[in-house]
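2 proteins. here.
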Amino acid sequence: MDMVAACRVLLEVDERGSVTRAAAALRIAQSVASRRILALEKHFGSPLLERNARAAVLTPFGRDVLGAARRLVLLADELELDVERARLRPVTIGVPEDCTTRDLAVADAAAREAGLRIEFVAAPPQRRAQLISTLSVRVAALAVPSDQALWVAELGAAGRRPSDRPLRLESLRPSRHIRAPRDGIAGSSIHIGPEDDLPHIRDVLTRAAFAGGLTPGQIQVDTSTTSALAAVLAEGDLLLCTEAEALDLALHWRPFTGLDVNRGFTLAGDSAHDVRAVRENLEDEIAGALGAKVVSRDPETTDA
């Protein structure tokens, strides 16, 4: 028995004085309304209506339970409203700050086609992890080493001037006789922005630079991509970034040679359902926003 539906009939009968008029108000057949009242009476073990040819009125027992029936219907209506609000509430997704507006819009459009409402929250890596742990976002692209990643983006060095040659860190080694680096196309320092200020990226690059004879000051960590880009434009330095980022910043990108350094991302969330929905519908679009490629392996979903 549908208790809520039966109570709706009872309330309408009390208001309209007839099972027929109650059925019309609820847009159901009169026989359906009658069956619901009979089922309710059977469940309660007592008659609810006094019936005659002209009208139907509540018995004393029916009047006693009417208040509870009204509260049940109101609560059911409130539940339906809450469900609709929850359905309309977007799935918030934490993403890197360097994702372009267009790439995120492409992902949003794909989500809408799939019937999924999303909203992006841009934040640096550590902040995205915090947003997940505090349930401030429902899903996030977390930075992880590439062997744990769902998406991987190759990192290289971008500067003002074009070059067809991959970059060897040794070419930036200061000369004893000339202050400028040996590679006249590139600047003397490589700048690391917030998205790459992580041990599995920063430390790999720093160790390789040390092994190549670079000075400690030639690997610089900046507090923002803006300040790193300013150094590239003003001083001719290089920015550690993906090829997609370099294109967006109007810089010329070069891969490293003899050095494998990548950004890795996995999808995490408190709800495995949210993570699965985002991945199934937006895996390629988010890869595009991250400037990354979907790797062939299938890492286990990370739950915060």
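next one coming up
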Amino acid sequence: MNDISTFTLKDIPDLLCDSYIVDSNDNLVFLSVWGRDTAMQELLAKLTIGSSSNVGLTDIRLVNRLNLLFHAKLTNDSEYNKKTQKFYHSQFGTLNHAWIFDKRIKQPCRENQSAMLMFEENTSPDMNNMSIFQTIKQLTSIPLLDHWQTSVIEIAKDNDMIKANLVLGRPIQSFTINLNENIMVDKVSELIQNKTLTL
């Protein structure tokens, strides 16, 4: 782990975080944490309990080396997936690693027409746009043609359907897509009618 980009969990200081992503409403999108088994089990238990008890967690608070506090709100626990892995024989002994992430990172939500995307920082804009467009196609019932990609992404961005997430720690890009199908239908229809989009 890069020491420059690590944070301590304020409520469980024996855990270190090396990557943290929140959306524009400060809701947790992704969290990568490291620590010994006891501290990790405490975190997972507190997440499971959530707001149903005063010992559960309803938010994640991180502190950096300058003692600055960063805050992420936790939505309903059922909206998060957890993946854990154990590393033996590290220089610190046995360590547990956990990723806690919004389910929409793995599977877009067609019901709410919403998705989360993550890319390595050096991923090209063309690759990013291709992934964004394919995700939009998964979310909508509108039959979008591949050569409309640039225009569809412009419509989505101009109407706040695509928002960049705040990333701390590792060099990652992340976006939230919240599709407004009514607006998309109107704008795509308009561009077809004025022949900007061709069939």
